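User: Please predict the structure of the protein below. I'd like the answer in structure-token form so I can feed it into my own downstream comparison script.

Assistant: Understood. Taking the following sequence of 79 residues as input:
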Amino acid sequence: MATQTPTTDPQTPTIDHLKPGCYLRVAVLAACLGMSKNSIWRLARDPKNNFPRPIKLSEKITVWSTDSILQWLASKAAA
């Protein structure tokens, strides 16, 4: 009996999707970080954790810079 290797959907965001110079909306960012959208918003509201602030592009569109997210991840890894 052959064993199956797990396959991943290429459309599913992963940490590899955090390319410098891009902007991500909350749903994609949450998927990349393995968190819920509510967790992202909770981190963004709490100034103690130094999570990057969102960028408001319009009334209904908010994004995060991947550069700032990558810096935040690096600071967490260094701690």
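That's the full token string. Helices lie at 26-33, 37-45, 66-78.
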